[in-house]
Amino acid sequence: MSVLFYVGAVLIVIGALCDLFGALGLLRFPNFYVRMHAATVGIIGGAAVPLFGVALLALGADFLHHRYAIAGASFITGVIVLLASPAGSHALAYAAHKAKLVQRPEIDHLAEVRGDD
Amino acid sequence: MTYAVVSLGIFGDGTGIRPLGEFYLENSYFGDYSAKSPEVVTSILWDYRGVDTLFETAVFFLAIIGSLTVFRLTKEQEKEVKKAEKAPTELTPIVKDVTKVIVVMILAVSASIALHGHLTPGGGFQGGSALAVAPLLIIAAYSKYTLEENGLDKTRALILRSIGLLGIALTALVPLLTGGFIMQNQPIFPAELDGQLIGGSLIYYNFFEFLAVGAGFTAVFLLLAIPEEKFKKILGVKK
Description:
The structure holds 2 protein chains of 2 kinds. Chain A is mainly α. Chain A has helices at about 5-30, 30-60, 65-100, 110-115. Chain A is elongated and about 60 Å long.
């Protein structure tokens, strides 16, 4: 078991913590946009980071069969999550702002930039 | 209580594997008539229960044909449906650019799931389902019309689906020519090609199933993406 194994394990623990904080934020934060921040902490920190952790852990585990396949699959999945999640939350926030479904937050930079409001 | 006794009786013989499971494990990779597939699930699905899987595929195709029938349109109505009424509202450049990258990645990953089906968990159906996510994402981020302008319309999807179905049928029937049984794998199909394990007929089944399932789902998604206003216009529904 090499250093990679331990780094991977630490990343997985960080992921679990991020998931916990994301869930807490989702429950406690006041409005939609701030809650979206908590949700993305849960996705990037709680899904992408542990997936990279699994990749490192698999690379470091010498006793594991097919460890390169496991590492590769985890890495690709992590990259896809890393790309897709910001785009998805961006689309959600944009749609919510455009439809004016959410109670207006105090600071609205997008409306300022566009000059509507 | 009875259940506990029975299950203890089954699992109490020391190995933890039932005789049937042992038979499958030994014969899917080590046996004289095996396809040398280390992935036992694929081996069981196509080699031992091939007819069953073939019928499952048939059920899927009946479902697709059913939805195509429900949404059937005449030639003129097809043309009407393909014409974008107004410029469709599109998502932001961020979403569109990310979709471009992810669609390519999904194509690669789904092909890998399907074509490694005889070596690793996965297979044609799973790979095809993953493949169908790519056109779905394009429909969501761009529009149905973008997909059709770039050459993937319902007819093309149906042709691809038919090629897949034909491939599965041919792979199942080829052993008959050499006096074998339907869907027989060894020794009609080679287990190795150029020193690479291809699992006999498994890779052909997986590839054609991949094509058929992916294209079938795409055809249904294209149908479901037709805007409601179009249907109301075609059917003459008054507001």
